[in-house]
# Entry
Amino acid sequence: MNDSAAKLEAAIKNGSAIVGVIGLGYVGLPLIDAFATCGFRTMGFDVDQKKVDRLLAGESYIGHISATRIAELTGNGQLTPTTDMARLAEADVIIICVPTPLSESRDPDLTYVETTTTTIAQHLRPGQLIVLESTTYPGTTRDVLLPILQSTGKLIGEDFFLAYSPEREDPGNPDFSARGIPKVVGGIDPASQKMAEAIYKKAVVSIVPVSSPEVAEACKIVENTYRSVNIAMVNELKTLFDRLAIDIWEVIDAAKTKPFGYQAFYPGPGLGGHCIPIDPFYLSWVARKAGMSTRFIELAGEVNRAMPRYVVDGVARALNEQGKPIRGSRICLLGVAYKKNVDDPRESPAFELFDLLGEAGATLSYNDPHVPKLPKMRSHSVPNLTSQELTSEFLASLDCVLISTDHSAYDFSFIVEHAPLVIDTRNACHAVTKGREKIFKC
# Structure
């Protein structure tokens, strides 16, 4: 073991290593909290000065990380937020948590990863470990990051170390924090594997070592493709069972009593979040490069992308039964976060619903206790709206309430009592006993 490796390993073992995280979003900030909890000093890097300023002021912009916790970390020096990328040289471990979106042609867009790696290379010093956590296709760490870092003249496994470890955040799930989820780790070489395992062992419940970054990269995509395909299946079954006048939710409740061979997945108005709607297309892209097609995965994507249109068609049918068209109807969406009890609206199907209903001429409003103002979305024309208070008067003034996210904060009995029509895409009103004639499952 050379001096660089020995110094880094010693710093990790004695807790003096500084952990730098690039990208202070829904993945990066919880990761900083995990490393700080076990005693490491951390540095948070982001190009967004507003995020850094809020952290320095002791504020949080992520629901499951409290302002009190942020103030504690910045106050005691365990977290140093900054936009100064030259300070990357101060970190012993650099973890990349930047977005990996799709292009308009649904190909992987690695702009953020490549730009970030180039910046790291400009400040790379001997003895640093770089870990990519952003979801991507197999081969990214070796074929994209490694050449950029090696262009500095420094040697992998001697001067610097490189690994991939996919993020496994589940916002809104109180049973699993960043520290409580096993971490898959794949290093470029044995020395990198050793360093990456050593740092994550300090911060998470257990390590799952794999033979290469490609295995770790594929692992993440398999996890999310599995969910995408199974959700597509129940979404397609929902459209079939609706035609057969069978309640898909009752079917699933019955099926999940089987103690083996079945896992319950649930239909909805479409897929949301930063992973499941995107990751399978990374796999499809890799398959096309290899001269193959992934028909099953692509079909699942088509089914899931069609669900917002199916919901809007259901809204039209329900309003039509009351002698009303969508055009001119006052429609309020309940929930714009991509899943219940979180404040993350990324890739939420609510925005596709806004687009489709707006094109059909509806007068739109929304409520979400976790999202007080609609954020801008690069793929959608987002109306300039703020969350409306769900008073009895407001609900009565509407033509339709559309439940797109079933937050626990909602009193669905109250909503059904005062709204003239409720379109339920989440089976949120299953326990409501009065006014069920107003509920239209979709």
Summary: The two ends are 62 Å apart (CA to CA). The chain has 14 helices and 13 strands.
